[in-house]
């Protein structure tokens, strides 16, 4: 018998691979030391002690109760970290005497009238806008407010997470990198492929040395040639392809002019989720012309400034994984640039820039639609056509706005007749004709051509 070369090489490679894999596992699990948990406990203990010291330094007030009072009475004119109608208040207890702050909050006008230097200086600095008195606040209430404004500024979660990650990497006790794991797994798989190749080659050599003939697969006809020779399969396939092509071609032509799902990026990011959802601002507060005209209109930037004159930044909890607090604050800054609002001076500069909003919903010129007829007379909610606007971060076209979509709505929607004498008279006559209790829009002529095309 002929000697086979490297017959024992497969066993050696397998043994080496298993040994390497077991050693690697031992190293990985050895790095998962319980010291990391102990360090996190120590860190939490230290942070808790630091927070306790901060609260102790802030005074005996309740910061949580002070935040509630601040948001109710003070937030309209003051911010913690930036100027507004009044000065920024974070850390005010470090620059002003507590007793003086009590007198100022209760009745600032009295201090100004008495000629108090600090009171007069603040009054003149902020355009001589007098702060309203708050005689209803007790000493405890004011202490709570001062405790709230004395708290240190919170570190954003993204920065805190980045700092913790950097600290873990620097300490060297955070485990092994995922990339390294993937590289090692890829190496193990490559080793297995090499082993399989060597085993296959060794077996073939062994068979050749033993005089064993390996089976040879018979030559088969190519599948495409067999398919072409079968006329029935060719006919059926052609019919199926024609039907599928016709279906998709019809669907493509039916979508011409339909912009459902259109979602352009606006020059200033406006979150309907925050305004209509979180803050529950009514749609018609901004789109006021929807009550009385054909179009809903684009709100003037002055409407935005009714609120954002005092709101130059969003609350930290408003941020999401996709949009940070810094992003939203930057968009508010774009609004200020457009209207020419100087935050530091709390005044308009007169230098304005036009905002080129991108239209989303646009009916063709031959189709007539009146917002006031639907919103005011019909009592149709904005979400019926525009979708869940209160959940949209970026506004998009929810409905197809096709003729068939409008006609179906007119066939299914009942006419609101309450408080409308004209419709009450029409309803009385047509309800006898159709024998129904309520009339749909189509039953009063809502699907006639001239209703929308004239």
Helix content: 55-70%
Percentage beta strand? under 5%
- Unreliable stretches (pLDDT < 50, length at least 5) are 1-7, 32-58, 169-173
How do the helices and strands follow one another from N- to C-terminus?
HHHHHHHHHHHHHHHHEEHHHHH
Number of strands: 2
Which structural class matches the secondary elements?
Answer: mainly alpha
Main sheet overview: 2 strands, antiparallel
Strand order of the largest sheet: 1-2
End-to-end C-alpha gap: 100 Å
- In round numbers, the mean pLDDT is 83
What is the overall number of helices?
Answer: 21
Name the shape in a single word.
flat
Radius of gyration: 37 Å
GO molecular function, one term: metal ion binding
InterPro entries: Cyt_c-like_dom (IPR009056), Cyt_c-like_dom_sf (IPR036909), Multihaem_cyt_sf (IPR036280)
Keywords: Heme, Iron, Membrane, Metal-binding, Signal, Transmembrane, Transmembrane helix
Organism: Salinimicrobium catena
């Amino acid at each position: 018998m002929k000697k086979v070369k490297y017959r024992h090489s497969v066993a050696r490679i397998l043994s080496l691979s298993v040994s390497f894999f077991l050693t690697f596992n031992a190293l990985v699990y050895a790095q998962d030391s319980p010291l990391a948990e102990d360090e996190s406990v120590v860190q939490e203990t230290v942070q808790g002690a630091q927070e306790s010291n901060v609260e102790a330094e802030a005074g005996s007030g309740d910061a949580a109760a002070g935040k509630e009072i601040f948001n109710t009475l003070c937030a309209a004119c003051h911010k913690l970290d930036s100027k507004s109608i009044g000065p920024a208040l974070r850390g005010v207890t470090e620059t002003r005497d507590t007793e003086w702050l009590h007198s100022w909050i209760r009745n600032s006008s009295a201090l100004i009238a008495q000629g108090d230097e600090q009171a007069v200086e603040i009054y003149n600095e902020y355009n001589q806008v007098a702060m309203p008195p708050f005689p209803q606040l007790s000493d405890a209430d004011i202490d709570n407010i001062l405790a709230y404004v004395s708290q240190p500024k919170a570190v954003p979660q993204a920065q805190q997470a980045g700092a913790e990650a950097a600290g873990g990497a620097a300490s060297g006790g955070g485990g092994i990198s995922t990339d390294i794991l993937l590289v090692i797994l890829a190496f193990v798989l490559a080793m297995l492929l090499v082993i399989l190749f060597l085993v296959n080659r060794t077996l073939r050599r062994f068979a050749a040395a033993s005089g064993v003939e390996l089976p040879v697969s018979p030559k088969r006809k190519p599948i495409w040639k067999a398919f072409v020779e079968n006329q029935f399969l060719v006919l059926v396939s052609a019919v199926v392809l024609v039907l599928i092509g016709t279906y998709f071609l019809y669907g493509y032509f039916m979508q011409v002019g339909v912009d459902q799902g259109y979602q352009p990026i606006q020059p200033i990011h406006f979150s309907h989720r925050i305004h209509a959802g979180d803050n529950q601002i009514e749609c018609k507060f901004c789109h006021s012309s929807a009550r009385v005209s054909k179009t809903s209109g684009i709100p003037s930037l002055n409407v935005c400034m009714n609120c954002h004159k005092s709101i130059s930044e969003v609350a930290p909890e408003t941020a999401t994984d996709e949009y940070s607090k810094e992003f939203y604050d930057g968009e508010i800054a774009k609004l200020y640039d457009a209207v020419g609002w100087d935050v530091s001076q709390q005044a308009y500069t007169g230098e304005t820039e036009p905002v080129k909003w991108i239209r989303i919903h646009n009916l063709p010129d031959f189709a007539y639609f009146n917002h006031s007829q639907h919103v005011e007379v019909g009592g149709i909610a904005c979400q019926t056509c525009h979708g869940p606007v209160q959940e949209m971060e970026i506004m998009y076209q929810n409905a197809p706005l096709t003729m068939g979509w409008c006609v179906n709505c007119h066939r299914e929607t009942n006419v609101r007749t309450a408080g409308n004498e004209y419709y009450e008279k029409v309803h009385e006559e047509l309800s006898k004709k159709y024998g129904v209790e309520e009339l749909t829009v189509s039953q009063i002529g809502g699907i006639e051509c001239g209703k929308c095309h004239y």
